[in-house]
Amino acid sequence: MANAQKGLKSILQKYPSDVVILSALRTPITRAYKGGLRNAYPEQMLAAVLKATLTENRNLPPNQIQDISVGTVLSELGGSKAGRMAACHVGYPETTSLHTVNRACASSLQAITAVADAITTNRIDCGVGAGMESMTRNYGSKAIPVEIWPALRDSPSKEARDCVIAMGMTSENVAERYGVTREDQDNFAVSSHQKASKAQKEGLFDDEIVPMEIENPSVNEPNEGQIFTMEKEVIAKDDGIRHTANVESMAKLKPVFKATGTSTAGNSSQISDGAAAILMMRRSKANELGLSSGIMGKWVSSQFAGVAPDEMGIGPAIAIPRLLSATGIRTEEVGIWEINEAFASQALYCIRLLGLDMAKVNPKGGGIALGHPLGATGARQVSTLLPEMKRQQQQVGVVSMCIGTGMGMASLFIRE
Question: Which residues are catalytic?
Answer without folding.
Answer: 105, 372, 402
